[in-house]
Write a sequence for this structure.
């Protein structure tokens, strides 16, 4: 789906690991989740007026992190409705990066000179790692023990 009721192009998107959910971040600042067999909308939430450039979905499709107005925001889907859990890192003008661990228990966010790791249920920061410069992308290893940037 390229458009929804408020219009505008998709800037980013991510599937759940099982492929049943696709979550899209729009230029308008909206995030919309789609059920992929019928492409029916599951839910939507507005994160402000800035485009959503970064977004990642938990492996089980029940949480996502997306770029909000001033921060990376962790949302959990409860009773088919998204509920904000916490801010998990700053929004930068350039160079970020998001990743869920393969088990979905950790989130890594990048910034200008660090990588932050958060508990995916609470949004509590668990680890800070120095980084040489802007983080352009992040990925956990398949066993979840390492992060590449």
């Amino acid at each position: 789906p390229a458009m929804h009721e408020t219009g505008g192009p998709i800037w980013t998107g991510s599937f759940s690991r099982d492929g049943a959910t696709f979550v899209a971040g729009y230029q308008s600042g909206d995030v919309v989740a789609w059920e992929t067999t019928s492409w029916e909308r599951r839910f939507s939430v507005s994160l402000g007026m800035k485009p959503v450039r970064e977004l990642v979905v938990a492996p089980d499709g029940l949480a996502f992190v997306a770029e909000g107005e001033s921060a990376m925001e962790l949302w959990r889907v409860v009773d088919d409705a998204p509920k904000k859990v916490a801010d998990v890192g700053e929004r930068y003008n350039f160079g970020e990066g998001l990743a869920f661990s393969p088990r979905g228990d950790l989130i890594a966010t990048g910034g200008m000179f660090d990588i932050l790791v958060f508990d995916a249920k609470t949004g509590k920061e668990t680890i800070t790692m120095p980084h040489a410069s802007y983080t352009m992308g992040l990925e956990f290893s398949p066993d979840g023990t390492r992060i590449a940037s």
